[in-house]
Each structure stands twice: as structure tokens, then as C-alpha cells.
Amino acid sequence: MRTSTHVRSLLGALALSAATLNAPMAFAASATLVMPDLCDDPSAVFDHEWATAKNQSEALFYMQADGTISAVTANAGAFNNYDTVYVAGHGGDDFVGGFTFAEFSDNFEAAHNNLPDEVFFAVCSAANGPNSLLKALNDQYGGNINTLYGGVSACALVGYGDPTLANAEYLINVTQSDANLYATIIDNITQKWAGAYPQSQNTYNQVCQARVDPFDQGEVDDFVDTVYTQFSQPPQSGNDEDSTNYLDLVSLNNGGDALFVCGASPNGSTVEVPCP
Hints:
With 276 residues, the chain is α/β, with parallel strands linked by helices. Helix content is 30%, strand content 19%.
């Protein structure tokens, strides 16, 4: 779930042989890119899990504070090899994940000199013009990216009563079936994030910061898996008001409007749609 503030942004094979484990990953069509605000709350992790469940975007990459883009998923290969990218980060009118639009676009292009076919922004206000994030990235590639998606305001995963990520949609102007319960679960998640990480005396944020700077691929990958596990459990009490399950937020979201779509040939159309 994405808003322009961090706290309210929550309002979104063991039997493998050694040969298989060491084989390079076949380059998939799509990857997910997360920002340094991965450490701020669980939203980026669940955006990645959504992209994986719904769009088979299993490869995960991380944009470090210095702009370097590094693979989180083992054997993901080069970021440059993925023609569709899902970007997850906290955003506003002139920033995304701690970077200005120009900085983000420079960093993205430096690691992805091949022209991407599609870029999907799970980022608040990514399509809010003039001079939107969508426009900044498309301009970086001479206006030639075929399709870009982004919201003109806050966006969130909408499950229409279903917590299954594969069935959820990213929408703007999102409504909830129970706004009070939604706010309560957000508070619970925020408190848990500020509490102790499993088998540690440090908070989730502190553990994350130590793993991304300096960047440790295996440790960051483990952090992502742990966050998903810890924040997708039903409440032990059985009381919905005790939930810290991010998927409950997805389920409570029950409506909204579509993201803005632009690009040189959006969704295969022969008509260019300028990005705002």
C-alpha cells in the first residue's frame, strides 16, 4: 500500500539437487525493483510478492542509496535483461524511495541500458503531472518505452474481500469495507515493525539497514522472506483487531480506480499516449 508518507503507506523446493541450485536463473520477462525504503515497512515486500504471484516477477533487485542496482534474488542475472520492471517505493510529487525523479531515472538507465518494454510503478503519485515520474523515466529513454503504469494519487492493492495476492489489483482512490478495522491493523503492523525482529533485539528497520548497507545479497533475500512470513500470519487470538497480517489490508480494500497508462505504444496500441 502506498501513500506519500511512510507510516500511512501501509493504508498497500528443498529437494533441489546441487546442480540445480548452482544453475543460473533463466532470464524471466519481468523483475521487481525496490528502494532503500524497503526498510521502512512491509509494503515493498508485499508489492514484490504481488508482482510474483500475479505476474511471475520472481527476480528482485534493490536500488542502493548510492544508486547501484543489485540483485536480491540469487542467480537473477543482470537487471538489464528484464524487459518488464515493477517498481515499488514510497513516492511523492518529486521523489521516489529517497531519490529525485532525475536521480532515479539516471540510476535505472545506468543499470538497464537496454530499452525496457514496460515499467509498472507501485508508487504513490507516479503519474501526477506535470513532470511526473513516468515522464521522467520515459524521457530518459527518448520517450520510447512502450507502456508505463502509475497512479495520479495514492495507490494500493485491492482484493475485494480476497486476501490472495494473485487476484489483487493495484488501484487509486481506494475504498475499504471497514475503515476502522483497516486503521487498527495499520497501527498493529506499525507497532510490530518497531518491535523486535525474530531472534534479534533490533527492530525490523535496524536489521534491514544493517543488511542493505553494506549490501549483502543473501541477508537481504532472507529479510524479504522473513517479512513476508511474519506479516502474513493470522492473529493468534483469532480476533481481527489483533491482526498484523498485511493481506488483511488487501482484503479490506474493496474498490478504486485504474492507474494511468502511457507510453510509445501502450499495451500494443499504435497510438502514443504522452506521460503527464
